[in-house]
Amino acid sequence: MAEVPGTEPPATRAARRAFVVGIVGLPVWWVLGLASAVPLLVTVPMAWDLWTRRGLRVPRHFGWWLLFLVWVVIGVGTLWATAPGTADAGGGTRILVFGFRLLWYVACTVMLLWIGNTPARFVPDRLLHRVFGSVFVVAVVGGLIGVLLPDLAVTTLAERVLPGGLRSNEFVRTLVSAEFADVQKVLGDEGARPKAPFPYTNTWGSVMALSLVYFLAAAARVQRRWHPAVVAVLAVAVVPVVLSLNRGLWLALIAAAAGVLALAALRRHTLALAGLVGVLVFLGVAITSTPLGETVFSRLDHPHSNDRRSQLIVATIASMSEGSPAVGYGSTRDAAGTFTSIAGGATADCAACGVPPLGTQGQLWLVLFSQGWIGAAFFLTFFVLALARTVRCQTLNATVATFVVGIFLLQLTVYDTLGLPMMLVMAAVGLAWREREEGARLHLPSGPAVAIVAGSALLGAVVALVDLSPGDRLASTVTIALTTAPTYLDVGADTSGPEVDAIADVTTTSSVDTEAALLFSERALTRAGNRSDLTPRELRRGMTLAAPPLSTVIEVTMTTSAPRDPSTAALAVAEEYLAERQRFLDARRDDLAARLATNLAATDPLDPAWSTSRDYLRAAIDHLTTHHPEVGRIIRVSDVHRVADDRSVPVTTGGGLGGLLGVGLTAVAGHRPRRSRWQR
User: For this UniProt entry, which segments traverse the membrane (predicted)?
Assistant: First the structure.
């Protein structure tokens, strides 16, 4: 930026001091339970400083980020829409999380603009490198304590003063608590995964990789007498990095090391290249010849989260693409059931048996699910173009930006990076932009342009509202309690003996999902359709299936267009399903009885050694042929009720696409912007 002669404005001085205190004082804020809020508060004096400026500028390609922010804001329109494959549970928590994320996006934007518009003589590059580099030192210390004392935790001031209702909220509790590590089973036994001073282990890993770049940039400018301290910090960092079992962090560090090697080779810095190779060789030998190496290899041999991550990604993309591909759902959603059962869920003994919310386990998946394909395209375009501006690494700030943004893009698929990690990225982009002294003046759109965009958005919303307005729809739910297959096929005798188990080895287990598949069978739906005057296709299209977690209850909801009675159709489907299930389990019982009879015939009636087995087999066959428990029963049929047509997704989509069309029209028409207070 072109520097204007003069003394440092009071607002700039206040913003700079708030920035230093807020970031360097991170350990203090963490102990107080304010570590997730203080970085947000730091940007308030920055925003005021920008408001008092004249000639405010924005970086090139900033329009893509503005479009993304608009897409985030309009996501509030779909915040309570039910996404396919998710549980319909919202409430005040959803808007709380949405507002928290929106504040972070705005705070990161303010950080970018403040650094880029503040002359380097007021906020020097060295100051920014050292402040953000201090975060790396804090993370190293917190990680080391987390490894050594994994159960150590501090009761924060925020935990003491917050109302009980807020403290009971898991999201809020995580943000205000101060725990040094999470104890998890990753390698079979419980082990510590450090996270201090952050709420999550993956946030710790993300910040470690990103802040390391700032730490090295600051170290490049310190006096020689500080070099031993730098080496000591890096050496100590190896311990929590390895013991964290954080593969995302390992990948980021390996990629960064490869990038440094490539850069040194291209620049023909022989000494730097040799030194880096020597350090890598030393680390490799040290790790492979110490217990740290065993930890690394064990972690690579136990990719316990890979399957669940991939299933979550598939479910996230499928749900968003089916329900709201253009604008997403504004925030995450809880999945219905688990990946193996519609009635599955977490238990006290197996918290990992549940499924993380759709849109988590990676910032990219959060953006995709919350803002749709279009919002994700805006988001990625901004950061890819920012990386393209600095990738030649011609200066220190450009190198910092290249590595920070590059690591950030690598982390998108594995880390939820919204928070301090994204703030570190925006700061790097702002530093490189300020150094290049480029960009455009911030201006307000002209009156005609605002009218065109607003009119197009309104027209798009109205068209979506009108075109997608069906007639009245009615719904009714039938609740069915099932007798599980092992109970229904009980042979009525003690089957604990190994000899008996070998003779009567018959698999009788069946999940709720397997048996619920009978509900959609062609024969059951054809019979139900004959009773309700609906085709099997209409029944499938109007039927939804749910099951309370960890239960043997199925809830069948039938939705029809008025004046058809959904309760008649739902009851017919439920009764025909139970009849089909009766035939299915009777066939399994007859098959089991026949197999037991075959086993009985194969025994020697004159051999006393077979007497126990023969008694068991005869009793089992008799029990199976005389005992016929019910396969299930209908326990409730709900009253018919009108289904409110949820038009939030089409209306929000129509408004968003209409607004984009309006932006394109104003660009083609070439409307001149009006002068803003920042241009006067």
Answer: 28-50, 62-83, 95-115, 127-149, 203-219, 226-243, 249-266, 273-292, 364-388, 418-434, 446-466
pLDDT, residue 467, reads 53
Residue 391: φ, ψ to 5°: -65, -20
CB neighbours of 476 closer than 8 A, spacing ≥ 6?
Answer: 557, 558, 565, 566, 567, 570, 637, 638, 639, 640, 641
- Amino acid residing at 281: V
Looking at residue 549, what DSSP letter applies?
A: T
Backbone torsions φ then ψ of 479, nearest 5 degrees: -105, 130
Measure the CA–CA gap between 474 and 447, rounded to whole angstroms. 46
Phi, psi of 613 (to 5 degrees): -65, -40
Write out the two tokens for 426: 């925006």
Rg, the chain, Cα only: 31
The answer to which of 64-68, 76-80, 130-134, 544-548 has the lowest mean pLDDT is: 544-548
Least-confidence region, from 155-159, 160-164, 302-306, 370-374: 302-306
Helices (H), 324-395: 363-390
Each residue of 114-166: pLDDT tens digit? 999 999 999 999 999 999 999 999 999 999 999 899 888 988 988 888 887 77
Left, alpha or beta for 550 (phi > 0: left; psi -120 to 50: alpha)?
Answer: left
CB half-sphere exposure, 331, CA atoms < 13 A: 21
Spatial separation of the C-alpha atoms in residues 529 and 506, rounded to whole Å:
35
Give this prediction's pTM.
0.81
Nearest to 66, CA basis, from 98, 30, 112? 112
Q: How many CB atoms lie within 10 A of CB 514?
A: 11
Q: For the chain, list the domains and their CATH numbers.
A: 10-346+365-436 (no CATH), 474-642 (3.30.1890)
Q: In angstroms, rounded to a whole number, what is the distance separating the alpha carbons of residues 70 and 375?
A: 9
Q: Count CB-CB contacts under 10 A for residue 320.
A: 27
Of the candidates 624, 630, 629, 632, the residue with the CA atom closest to the CA atom of residue 590? 624
Q: Phi-psi region for residue 337, left (φ > 0), alpha (ψ -120 to 50) or beta?
A: left
Provide mean pLDDT across the span 602-620: 80
Q: Which pLDDT belongs to residue 215?
A: 95
